[in-house]
Write a structure and sequence with these properties.
The protein has helices at 31-37, 43-52, 72-75, 161-177, and strands at residues 21-23, 26-30, 59-60, 68-71, 104-107, 124-130, 136-140, 147-149, 154-156. The protein is of the alpha+beta class.
Length: 184
Amino acid sequence: MSPLHPQSKDRCSAGPRPPVVSFGDATVMTTATAARYLDLAGRDSARIWLAQRGIRPVGREPGPSGQNLYPAQAVLPLKGRGRRRRPAYPWCDAAGASIPSGARVEQVLVDRAHGALASRLGKQAQVIRRSRGTRLVVRFDGETKPVSIRPDLVRVRPVNTGQILDQLQQLHDLLLAGGHGDGR
C-alpha cells in the first residue's frame, strides 16, 4: 500500500494529487505544477490553456522569477482534458492531417522547448522540409531564419482557389522558361 499523500485525508483518493500550497485563504498551485498535473508541454502552454478556459491567476510567487498561482479548486477538475493524443503518423498536424512539404501552416500551440514560442501563436509559416526525426523546418511570415518545430504544434492552412491558380501560373511559367513551349 502506498503512503498517504501529504494533502490526502484518506487512502481511497482517486490517484495522486499535485502539491498545492495555501495563499491567503485559497489553496493554489504554480503554473509548472498545473502543467504537470494536466499533462501539458510546459508552463507557457499551461498559462495559455488555463487562460483560454477562463481560469485566471490569483497571485504570484514572491521573487523576480515567481510563477503565477492558480486556484487549485479550478484546476483539479480539469485532469485528463489537458493533453491531446499525439498522432501515430509523425508528419501530422494538431488536427491529424498530413503535412506535405511546401504546405502553409499556422502555429496553434505553445511549447518553447520544441520551437513553438508564444510570440508565434497564430502566425503562419511555410514548410520548407521535414527534418531528421519528427520535426518540420518552417519559415514564419516576417522572419528570415528557418525554425525546427514539432508537427503536432501546427495546423495545416486550407488552400484557397487563388493560391491554386497562382501555383499553376508559376508552374506554367517555369515550363515555358525551360524551353519547352509546347508543354512537353
